[in-house]
Amino acid sequence: MSSTASPFPERIRLTGEGLVLRDWTEADVPAMPALFDHPDIAYWTPIVSPFDEEAAWARLDRDRRLRADGTAMLLAVTVDGGAPLGEVMLRRASEGTELGYAIGPAHRGQALAVRAVRVMAAYAFEELGAERVVLELEAENAASVAVATKAGFRLLDVPLITGEEKGRPFALQTWGLDRG
Question: What is the CATH number of domain 13-131?
């Protein structure tokens, strides 16, 4: 194995917390706009908007490239390995291991994001050797702050991450969960 090999497996299926996190497939493309083409997702995430079938194909292609180069892994959130209800992401960077998520509007209120984050954090700790996983959230995003709190993350005393996305400024807080 070369030193440039991806730390992520080509195919993956994680289970726990009553969920199955699995690879996105071509068969999921028609379902993706209903999950991601929503004002909340457009506002709070970097996911493109509007999100149509063309955007879904581009996202699937991007997911595969990011995984192959070892940068990130995006998995469909399901309860049984079937229909996708949202997405959970793990991104490896020099500053650490970051998680992210987006749950389709029709599937909210079931703690899917909390459970998916816990499963992905366990994978990061157990399989990738991460010492800490982080969530980067806007303080005004009450739903995501609730996910972080319920998943056991704590607000870290680090500088805000500021920038602009989709024509609006943002300031992200960093929430952390440590191994053990």
Answer: 3.40.630.30
